[in-house]
Amino acid sequence: MVEEMKIGSFAEALSSKAPIPGGGGASALAGALGSALGQMVGNLTVGKKKYAAVEEEVRARMEELSRLSGEFLRLADRDEEVFKPLAEAYGLPKETKEEREYKEAVMEERLLAATMVPLEIMERAVQTMEILEILAEKGSVMAVSDVGVGIQFARTALLGGVMNVYINTKSMKDRQKAEELNGRAGELTAKGIKLADQVYGRVLEGLKN
Amino acid sequence: MVEEMKIGSFAEALSSKAPIPGGGGASALAGALGSALGQMVGNLTVGKKKYAAVEEEVRARMEELSRLSGEFLRLADRDEEVFKPLAEAYGLPKETKEEREYKEAVMEERLLAATMVPLEIMERAVQTMEILEILAEKGSVMAVSDVGVGIQFARTALLGGVMNVYINTKSMKDRQKAEELNGRAGELTAKGIKLADQVYGRVLEGLKN
């Protein structure tokens, strides 16, 4: 499990030529760190008189972030789990017509599984951003810079994820399905970049003044 | 040491209200992961006939990234080390004139130390981007998506770093020094965003086609 790996060992494994962990797992980790930073902001907000009016809402957002953080770490593992079956499928024989048809069907199924992981990372990255946007407004001003750092991590999860969607859909034979998945990834990218840049910009302006 | 922490424990510590690790340490970690992804691209390039002509250069870049990765992890530790003295300085008494002068001098010195860490993270983030730009062009096309993910991590290190520069310079009494540091941070931000977005955009276009 990625969660149990030491940071130095993860960075070393990432830097090696072994395909896992790779950009997909790293993107999931970025999401987990982004949501952890949001939880930190929440923890610095609740229990303070000044923020009593928003405490209930902030607590609800913290619970969502805690769930998201766990899901990102599980997606980092999942990214490794879907890799091996896909690599095996690439190695299937394709001498006879039957072999080719079988290989194509297996490849298609496993490419879809490998695409769903980064697409789920992207969905959760945008959800994390939406919560960070609320925390930028309602959370403790003392922790606003952590909202800014957190939203950059969520942005990396999103834009790391989309790369791994396109890599997998590129090899799919069902082009309609591939275009549908790329379309969803494109929507999330556009929405997430806009949101992340808006929230980051607001936080940065606030810090400068 | 951050390097020795398990990923799950780091995320949990990050999410707590304890000030360290916070956005500064997380930014340093983003830099380490970005440079690790660049090393992965290098490792997937060297030793391949197709890339024999660029092997020497790619190896040189990998060494630079390995050094940067280690420096980022040390900066994550350093970010924690400078925090305690600064927090202590905030707590110094300011009853008498002598106490106020002493406090101001100590604060100033420790704010500067706390500013230098994210500024060094920013410098190294841009250096990492410059190497990733070269790898986007010369590295294995099989690993190009990892360049794209890596440059997003470096971008997060940069934009997480600048938040932590501004937080600390904001409290400095020596406004000329503060503006000088903010100016350098602003230059790095502008240069880094442009570079990261260019490289990422090229990688993404290449993947789509």
UniProtKB/TrEMBL annotation, chains A, B:
One of its GO terms (molecular function) is catalytic activity. Pfam families: FTCD_C (PF04961). Residues 7-184 form the Cyclodeaminase/cyclohydrolase domain. This is Cyclodeaminase/cyclohydrolase family protein. It comes from the Bacteria. InterPro entries: Cyclodeamin/CycHdrlase, Formintransfe-cycloase-like_sf.
